[in-house]
């Protein structure tokens, strides 16, 4: 099934894989922001996850250990951010930007020895005869386990935030840290946990880039994916299922521009490369404006430092 030389089934299948790094990072950032912390260091955590995951996978021969290492690297970066902003009360915006610059620089240094190296392959899940179903099989049953885990994580985050006590506490801390503290909740501990989860998801997304999406190590390979994840969280109004839709839209446009290049369309490569970012932001802004009356406001304490004595 093709339109204008573009295979629609292949495009849809590529969409899911292309969306996964951004979806993981955006899901993690949503949890962090729900706790009232704005971490602009998503790009830095992703790139550190990419290089750490790649290095671990090459050293051990296990892509699973590579994903674990990527998540740990992202979580360590987030913990550094948490110490600076929650213990030393540094400015969240400036610290997040510094974290991104630090991650980009350190990853470039670590990754020098891994350029041109191929990581061990990540196997796709075997769904047996389901993968052979026309159209549906290639789209839904031809991916690796991380793709399915990313969608499952969105469902888990939605459920936890909406139906569990832990989610209620997290949202309470994000809406009013002073009120949450007065009720006896440990605001700093909750934010550390939320930031750690967000960092782990960003690192996992970065590891997916270097181990599956590309798969190789290239300096600066995240190419702004962390910033897209941040934008998706905001324009999705901090709602998990809207984050899923936003990430899949970005992945779809990314897959489409690759298909257009492969089909030989006479469109400058620079325009095709920037299209996913520009179109994603424009569409998210339009959707936000159209649904303004029903948009969920940002957590009231987002970006504000908590003083235990307050």
What is the overall silhouette? Answer: globular
Number of helices: 12
Order of helices and strands: EEHHHHHHHHHHHH
Output the CATH class name: Mainly Alpha
Number of strands: 2
Give the terminus-to-terminus CA distance: 62 Å
Mean pLDDT: 88
Please, could you describe this protein's structure?
The chain has one domain (2-290): ABC transporter involved in vitamin B12 uptake, BtuC. It has helices at 8-34, 42-60, 63-87, 92-110, 136-140, 145-163, 165-175, 177-182, 187-213, 225-235, 240-262, 269-290; strands at 2-3, 6-7. Helix 10 runs parallel beside helix 12 (269-290). 45% of the residues are buried. By secondary structure, it is mainly alpha-helical. It is globular, with a radius of gyration of 20 Å. The model has no long low-confidence stretch (mean pLDDT 88). It is found in: Cell membrane. Keywords: Cell membrane, Membrane, Transmembrane, Transmembrane helix.
What is this structure's SSE topology?
Elements lengths: L1 E2 L2 E2 H27 L7 H19 L2 H25 L4 H19 L25 H5 L4 H19 L1 H11 L1 H6 L4 H27 L11 H11 L4 H23 L6 H22 L20
Antiparallel strand pairs: 1-2
Tag the structure with descriptive keywords.
two-stranded antiparallel ribbon, 12 helices, mainly alpha, ABC transporter involved in vitamin B12 uptake, BtuC, globular
Brief description of this entry?
The chain is mainly α and 310 residues long. Helices cover 69% and strands 1% of the residues.
């Amino acid at each position: 099934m093709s339109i204008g030389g573009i295979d629609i089934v292949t495009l849809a299948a590529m969409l899911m894989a292309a969306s996964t790094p951004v979806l993981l990072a955006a899901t993690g950032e949503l949890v962090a922001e729900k706790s009232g912390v704005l971490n602009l260091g998503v790009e830095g955590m992703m790139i550190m996850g990419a290089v750490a995951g790649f290095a671990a996978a090459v050293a051990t021969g296990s892509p699973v250990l590579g994903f674990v290492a990527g998540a740990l690297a992202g979580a360590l970066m987030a913990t550094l951010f948490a110490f600076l902003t929650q213990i030393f009360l540094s400015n969240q915006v400036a610290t997040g930007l510094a974290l991104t610059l630090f991650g980009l620089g350190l990853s470039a240094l670590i990754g020098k020895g891994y350029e041109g190296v191929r990581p061990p392959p990540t196997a796709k899940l075997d769904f047996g005869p389901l993968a052979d179903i026309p159209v549906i099989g290639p789209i839904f049953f031809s991916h690796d386990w991380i793709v399915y885990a990313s969608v499952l994580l969105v469902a888990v985050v939605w459920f936890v935030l909406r139906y569990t006590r832990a989610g209620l506490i997290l949202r309470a801390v994000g809406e009013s840290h002073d009120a949450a503290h007065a009720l006896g909740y440990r605001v700093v501990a909750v934010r550390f946990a939320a930031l750690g989860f967000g960092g782990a998801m960003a690192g996992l997304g970065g590891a997916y880039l270097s181990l599956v999406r590309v798969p190789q190590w290239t300096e600066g390979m995240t190419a702004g994916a962390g910033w897209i994840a941040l934008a998706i969280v905001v324009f999705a109004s901090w709602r998990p299922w809207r984050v899923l839709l936003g990430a899949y839209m970005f992945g779809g446009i990314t897959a489409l521009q690759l298909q257009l290049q492969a089909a030989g369309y006479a469109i400058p490569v620079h325009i095709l490369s920037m299209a996913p970012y520009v179109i994603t932001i424009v569409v998210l802004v339009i959707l936000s404006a159209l649904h303004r009356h029903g948009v969920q406001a940002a957590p009231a304490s987002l970006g504000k430092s908590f003083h235990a004595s307050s």
